[in-house]
Amino acid sequence: MIAKRALALLGLLGTVSAGFCKNRTFWLCGDSTMAPGGGHNHTEGWGQYLQYSLDPHLRVNNSAYAGRSARTFTREGRFQAIMDKITPGDWVLIQFGHNDPGDPFNDPKNRTDCPGMGSETCPVQTDDGVEVVQTFVTYLQNATAEFLRLGARVIIASPTPNNPYEFGPTFNWTPTIYSWYSWYVASSMGGPAAGVYYVDHAGYAAQAVHNLGPESADANYPMDHTHLSPAYADLFARAFALGLKCGTAPAQQYVVNATSRIEGDVLGTCLPVNATLPI
Ligand SMILES: *[C@@H]1O[C@H](CO)[C@@H](O)[C@H](O)[C@H]1NC(C)=O
Ligand SMILES: *[C@@H]1O[C@H](CO)[C@@H](O)[C@H](O)[C@H]1NC(C)=O
Ligand SMILES: *[C@@H]1O[C@H](CO)[C@@H](O)[C@H](O)[C@H]1NC(C)=O
Ligand SMILES: *[C@@H]1O[C@H](CO)[C@@H](O)[C@H](O)[C@H]1NC(C)=O
Ligand SMILES: *[C@@H]1O[C@H](CO)[C@@H](O)[C@H](O)[C@H]1NC(C)=O
Ligand SMILES: *[C@@H]1O[C@H](CO)[C@@H](O)[C@H](O)[C@H]1NC(C)=O
Ligand SMILES: *[C@@H]1O[C@H](CO)[C@@H](O)[C@H](O)[C@H]1NC(C)=O
Predict the structure, then answer these.
(1) Could you tell me the residue ranges of all domains in the chain?
(2) Which secondary structure element, helix H or strand E, spans residue 12, and what is its range?
(3) Does residue 139's CB lie within 6 angstroms of at least one atom of ligand 4?
(4) What pLDDT was estimated at residue 1?
(5) Confidence of residue 11 (pLDDT cuts 50, 70, 90)
(6) Class of the CATH-defined domain 24-262
(7) Which of 75, 122, 172, 214 is close enough to 104 for a disulfide, judged by CB 3.0 to 4.6 Å?
(8) How confident is the model over 169-227, as pLDDT tens digits?
(9) Would the CA dihedral through 184, 145, 94, 89 be positive or negative?
(10) Ligand 5 lined by 126 (C-beta under 6 Å)
(11) Contact 59/27 with Cβ under 8 angstroms?
(12) Could you confirm whether the keyword Hydrolase appears in this record (predicted)?
């Protein structure tokens, strides 16, 4: 009797904890496409739905913030706020690219990165002196290096796709340069061997939107070609979970859904990869 109860209890614990002995945090860094409240006006960020696909032992902290770029997330201390709280074993997801393009010397929002993929700098005059603006790649490499030093592992994700049906009923989407920059960051930081992974969220989300078609897309990019309805925010979170499962990042062990249950008519299947991609 007692032995039976003990066994039942052990079984229960096994199911509930799924073998995770410590609680971890999954820190999300991004813009309005990921943030709580999205871009406002009843849009939502996909980071708000990620927890539903994850075991509660990996708790999502959605620190994404509308309007931010790699530059302003750094300048405003938003990476630093996470660095102050992070503990070894945590995971960080970094996804930018919507608010990063433009001319840093002519940008009323002061958020555009310096063009280039390396150590290029753009010294911009501000009211408080000169801000030495760096490239998207440098900001992400800098944040990644610090997260690794603090014992965390990092996933760099390509930015969410804009509405591929914006101009008509034919699917029209290609990755932006930020997809390439994002995998370059993961690769240049040492890739999976160094604890840095790439999830092609752009590709996975675009695949789902393609499968759902133009009417669905037009209804679920309700405000403009970037921001998502709550339904698409949830869809994009599930597309991220598929991308995570299709890669090698050990964080995939926290995904509660079997790959065979995620793949299908809506989300599609794992995307083809080559040896260049640090997934
Ligand atoms: C969002 O809603 C506010 C208030 O209703 C409105 O003034 C604004 O134009 C809307 N913005 C967009 C981008 O739709
Ligand atoms: C760890 O997370 C689980 C699931 O959310 C929760 O039940 C438990 O109280 C947490 N443990 C600690 C030590 O925070
Ligand atoms: C997420 O982390 C930030 C930075 O530590 C913190 O200010 C915020 O309260 C956290 N959010 C939640 C929902 O725990
Ligand atoms: C590197 O990151 C830290 C923390 O976010 C930040 O304080 C510092 O300004 C960054 N350096 C560069 C060159 O971006
Ligand atoms: C951008 O920087 C300029 C020069 O410092 C400043 O006048 C302006 O208020 C800033 N704009 C924002 C949105 O921070
Ligand atoms: C995984 O299953 C949960 C319900 O158990 C659901 O809320 C979530 O959307 C699913 N995620 C995926 C990627 O299918
Ligand atoms: C590998 O895939 C990426 C992304 O699709 C592509 O940009 C790159 O050119 C490919 N590399 C090779 C060697 O095929």
Answers:
(1) 24-262
(2) helix 2-17
(3) yes
(4) 38
(5) very low
(6) alpha beta
(7) 122
(8) 999 999 999 999 999 999 999 999 999 999 999 999 999 999 999 999 999 999 999 99
(9) positive
(10) yes
(11) no
(12) yes
Q: Is the CB of 51 under 6 A from ligand 3?
A: no
How many CB atoms lie under 10 A from the CB of residue 87? 12
Closest atom of ligand 2 to 16 CA is: 4
To which residue do tokens 């770029």 refer? 69
CB burial of residue 172 (10 Å; 0-12, 13-18, 19+)? exposed
Give 48: exposed, middle or buried? Use CB within 10 Å, 0-12, 13-18, 19+.
buried
Q: Is the pLDDT of residue 31 over 80?
A: yes
Give the ligand at the shortest distance from the Cα of 223.
1
Q: pLDDT by residue (tens digit) across 258-269?
A: 988 999 999 999
Give the Cα separation of 268 and 21 in Å (integer).
Answer: 33
Give yes or no for a contact between 133 and 121, defined as CB atoms under 8 angstroms apart.
yes
pLDDT reported for residue 15: 41
Alpha carbon of residue 216 to chain centroid: 23
Q: Is the CB of 142 under 6 A from ligand 4?
A: yes
- Look at strands 24-29 and 121-126 and give their pairing: unpaired
**Are the C-beta atoms of residues 278 and 186 closer than 8 Å to each other?**
yes
**Residue 86: is its pLDDT beyond 90?**
yes
Per the rule left: phi > 0, alpha: psi between -120 and 50, beta: everything else, 248 is alpha
What's the pLDDT band for 87 if we cut at 50, 70, 90?
A: very high
The whole-angstrom separation of Cα 173 and Cα 75 is 31
Distance 140 CA to ligand 1 centre (A): 31
